[in-house]
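Q: Give me the 3D complex with EPZ.
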Amino acid sequence: MKEYIINGGRMLEGTVDIRGAKNSILPLLAGSILTDEIIVLHDCPHISDVDSMINILEGLGSKIIRKDRDIIVDSSGVCNSQIPSSLAKELRSSIFLLGSLLSRLKKAKVAYPGGCDIGLRPIDIHIAGLRELNIDIQEQGGFIICNSQNAKSADVVLDLPSVGATENLMMSSVFIKGKTVIRNCAKEPEIVDLQKFLNAMGAKIRGAGTSVIVVEGVDKLHGVEYTPIPDRIVAGTYLIATAMCGGNVELRNVNSEHISSLISKLSKTTCKVYVKNDRIIIKSKGRQKSLDCIETMYYPGFPTDLQSQIMAMQTVSRGTSVIVENIFETRFKTASELKKLGADITIKGRVAVVKGVKQLVGSEVIATDLRGGASLVLAGLVADGETIVKDIHHIDRGYEDMSLDLSALGANIRRT
Ligand code: EPZ
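A: Here is the predicted complex, encoded as structure tokens.
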């Protein structure tokens, strides 16, 4: 198994180029089977979640070529409506292939999805929404079997603003005659990106970024070349890394609006954060004051995908911080690994109390999930001595090799 070996204590200096967002590219790839013409996606990082989605699409009959960070998709040959459980278990995002398969082939058979170990990750809201569109859904032996021959436009209200369910319903209604209204939608930037992408293909969707999305059915969609939004979570991860290590780092190709909640938190510390067009510069020195309270919320609130990383930052801040995880029920798994490095964290249900310590001490830790793994790397960058982060395949799901970016900034980190 691959590991990161980190010797802490270095400041970070330099620039990092942020690539296309994993959580945008995955739904865009699902949307690429809505046309039998060529789709080209630019600036796609080499991360394993994208590789998994490409495997799934090829299993459905798509032909896909990767040229550096371009992905070229030819879905003219898509004919298989079943996603094998081996692949569906590997990737939670396989669930929003439901919507695009139903639009393209009028039927779909998907195994219950897998994904990160951060909670139950049910799909009841996806299923309820699709049924509102008069899509027939049977659940049999761990599979979801759907048929959308008699799908009808409808006014659908989501029980909670689920990102995946919003994306699934957008893609399952693009060809349904009439006007489908989706209410209580997620407002994440990736939803806006999906609307822009589908409209560039000829769809008629409006309202993404607000809690009401309206989809007017069209007959067909055509091919398009598209560049996804930059990855706000990767950008946020490196801002937090710099806040912890000290130094002067410039991120290029970022949309600061997408991480305004993090920037506002960092501005409450002694860090200085400057935004210049699509660049963010962060300057940091000395030990930061603890942030009193961080609550994860739906966008534009503080993102749950940065909760583990900000927790790592609070373990070495001056004071006590309370972190509340409102989105997923078990997204504190990495806390027990951070405690192996000397962190002082008390977990009570969805609340974590983090008492800052002067110094973490390097040790061997195990990544439990994608963002939890990233938080262990950040802790290793400031820990005294050597930290070994094991099971880094979790981290490879969402970050091109973190050691390349961080060592280019001066960190002492290498991948075995
Ligand atoms: C997306 O997951 C992201 N993944 C996640 O990023 C992110 O953490 C999450 O949105 C929240 O922002 C992708 O976009 C590929 P949800 P998704 O449906 O769509 C509950 C990362 O690290 N829920 O918005 O699965 C669910 O249990 C990953 O990049 C239901 O109860 O998230 C959770 O508590 C991790 N029933 C909450 O809603 C449902 O049918 C938010 O889930 C669906 C969701």
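A quick observation: The chain has 14 helices and 24 strands.
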